[in-house]
Automatic annotation (TrEMBL):
Keyword Membrane: yes
Domain ABC transporter: 359-593
PANTHER family referenced in this protein's UniProt entry, alphabetically: ATP-BINDING CASSETTE SUB-FAMILY B MEMBER 10, MITOCHONDRIAL, ATP-DEPENDENT PERMEASE MDL1, MITOCHONDRIAL
Name of the protein described by the UniProt record: ABC transporter ATP-binding protein
Main location: membrane
Glycoprotein among keywords: no
GO MF annotations in UniProt: ATP binding
Organism: Streptomyces gilvifuscus
Length: 605
């Protein structure tokens, strides 16, 4: 069984309940799978550099003692300089390898997250906010990069270097070492007591940052509505609450980290002063040499960096676990299956066209929430090369039918059938390969006009593009925009009108030459001239593929080959326009209201 893309394989997962530093380090280590060679080389280089650093106080000791005896010190000074330069080079090489490894881990995580988020079950998008999911790919992985590129190796090398310094200090003066160890142990106790709080505060801060991104994305995505209703201050205040929450969590993290850093610094400085005072008294009492004291002081000061790096790394690992929990949660969200369930795995015959309708729904039931059913037995068919309209009052379930046909959701009961084959016996990719959808709120992405029209067929030829541009009546738009097809349409098509965005979406759908085309309110953003033109287009398109159209305007509905009437999640009538005017009271009511709004003649009773 393969692991989830972007997640480390092997080992046991660390749950939120397991907050020990050991478990956190183990989790961070598993993230580095595939980069262990780089870590080993970087660790060796860091240790070499640190070892050369440990040798420097011994050379300095010789320099001090030799100077006191009046001996030549130039060779020792040259050796000291060489040790310093080689240490710097080894440290730089190790740090580069670690930074590159950290970027590699983050790249792998981001690839896995992006691939996962784009393939989630549609129900998951209903449960999670887009901005929060995006922040897990950006802010959380950025924090995690710092952990895997610094903390893990710093803990190993810092501990080894500190151990080496302690051994040499014990060799020079055991009593002074015991005094230093007592102050460092006090700092370690303080640090250990703060780690759980640092991780908790970091989790709250990352969650608040995700909420900021989600709220801001919602406000920017609805900016025209926000401004028309003069809600800028209210939105800013709402997002500001999230900002304040992030600030509070960040301040708490900073407070705990500051206490931890201060404890480490006071311990190191206190031990340094103890060594200076006690060692100075011993030198003045002729119980030790000045060179020994200088070397011990250098080791005591040299102990600052590895100890600080170890304590900092431990705190950073706990902060990183807060980010990792959010990333791991996203990587565990269920995705759409790419294959077939075991019960449906049987040899599939060739699709049959002509004998069976392009689409059929048989007694379909569905609910987003089990307590509130949306569809309660929908049955109708869309024959090949026919235009079928779906009508009904708001909330009847029309858009949900489209969501089921597009396989965004699976029916709770009943069957959706394509060309005589139940959807459950086909992969979602196979079902979607034969359909195209034009939504009421047409999706236009940032890029050129050509990018948007050719989104589903990037390799489309100029001739194919011209065909769908003519079908969707987009010639005027292409001529108007500076640069034509190369014109940038702005974020969410901000430079286009609603009708133009609708026609772009229609052109995009027609480019794939679908066997079934779904249109949700295709005329909702069109004026009467373009609506009449689109009606003609739909007649032409119906000669190439099956059409299922959600429509409220009578001018669109009355030209359909068949009209299906829905109410309260059920199909209550079906037929052509004239038949339904005679047989369906609901349809007559809908038609009459449409005629009154459009100013047409009265509908016969």
């Amino acid at each position: 069984m393969t692991g989830t893309p972007g997640r480390p394989s092997g080992g046991t997962d660390v749950t939120c309940a397991d907050r020990s530093t050991r478990a956190a380090v183990a989790t961070m280590y598993r993230l580095t799978a595939g980069h262990r060679g780089a870590i080993a080389v970087a660790t060796v280089l860091t240790l070499v550099g640190s070892g050369l650093g440990l040798a420097q106080p011994l050379v300095a000791r010789q320099v001090v003692d030799a100077t006191g005896r009046g001996h030549v010190i130039w060779p020792s000074l040259v050796l000291l300089g060489a040790l310093f330069l080689v240490e710097a080079a080894a440290g730089a090489g190790g740090r580069f390898l670690l930074e590159r490894m950290g970027e590699g881990v983050v790249r792998q995580l981001r690839h896995g997250l992006v691939g996962r988020l784009l393939r989630l079950e549609m129900r998951e998008y209903d449960r999670h906010r887009d901005g929060d999911l995006v922040s897990r790919v950006t802010a959380d992985t950025t924090l995690l990069r710092e952990v895997v590129s610094q903390a893990l190796v710093d803990m190993v090398t810092g501990s080894l270097v500190a151990a080496g310094a302690i051994v040499l200090m014990a060799w020079l003066d055991l009593l002074l070492l015991l005094l230093v160890a007592a102050t460092v142990a006090a700092a370690a106790v303080i640090v250990a007591s703060l780690l759980a709080g640092i991780r908790s505060a970091s989790e709250h801060m990352q969650n608040s940052v995700g909420a900021i991104a989600a709220d801001l994305e919602r406000a920017l995505g609805s900016l025209p509505m926000v401004r028309v209703h003069r809600a800028e201050e209210r939105e800013a205040a709402g997002i500001g609450t999230r900002v304040d929450a992030a600030y509070g969590a960040g301040v708490r993290t900073a407070k705990l980290a500051s206490v931890m850093s201060s404890a480490v610094e006071l311990a190191v400085q206190g031990s340094f002063l103890i060594v200076l005072v006690v060692g100075g008294l011993r030198v003045s009492g002729h119980s030790g040499s000045l060179g020994d004291l200088v070397a011990f002081l250098l080791y005591a000061s040299y102990l600052v960096l590895p100890l600080s790096s170890v304590f900092h790394a431990v705190g950073l690992v706990q902060r990183g676990m807060g980010a990792y929990q959010r990333i791991d949660e996203a990587l565990r969200l269920p995705v759409e299956p790419t294959g077939l369930p075991a019960s449906a795995r049987r040899p599939a015959g060739p699709p049959v066209t002509g004998e069976h309708p392009a689409l059929a729904l048989h007694d379909v039931h569905f609910a987003y929430d089990p307590r509130r059913p949306v569809l309660r037995g929908v049955t109708f068919a869309v024959p090949h090369r026919r235009f079928v309209a779906l009508v009904g009052p708001s909330g009847a379930g029309k858009s949900t039918v489209f969501a089921l046909v597009a396989r965004f959701y699976e029916p709770d009961a009943g069957a959706v059938v394509f060309d005589g084959r139940p959807a459950a016996e086909l992969t979602r990719a196979a079902c979607r390969g034969g359909i195209a959808v034009v939504h009421q709120n047409s999706h236009v992405v940032h890029g050129t006009l050509r990018d948007n029209i050719a989104y589903a067929v990037p390799e489309a030829t100029e001739e194919e593009l011209r065909r769908v541009i003519e079908l969707a009546r987009l010639e005027e738009v292409v001529d108007r925009l500076p640069g034509g097809l190369s014109a940038v349409v702005g974020e969410r098509g901000s430079t286009l009108s609603g009708g133009e965005r609708q026609r772009i979406a229609l052109a995009r759908a027609l480019l794939v030459r679908p066997s079934l085309l779904l249109l949700d309110e295709p005329t909702s953003h069109l004026d009467s001239i373009n609506e009449s033109a689109l009606t003609t287009v739909l007649k032409d398109v119906a000669q190439e593929c099956a059409l299922l159209v959600i429509a409220h305007r009578l001018s669109t509905v009355q030209h359909a080959d068949r009209i299906v009437v829905m109410r309260d999640g059920r199909t209550v009538a079906a037929g052509c326009h004239e038949e339904l005017l005679t047989r369906s009271a609901l349809y007559r009511e809908l038609a009459a209201s449409q005629m009154l709004r459009s100013g047409g003649d009265a509908v016969p009773g």
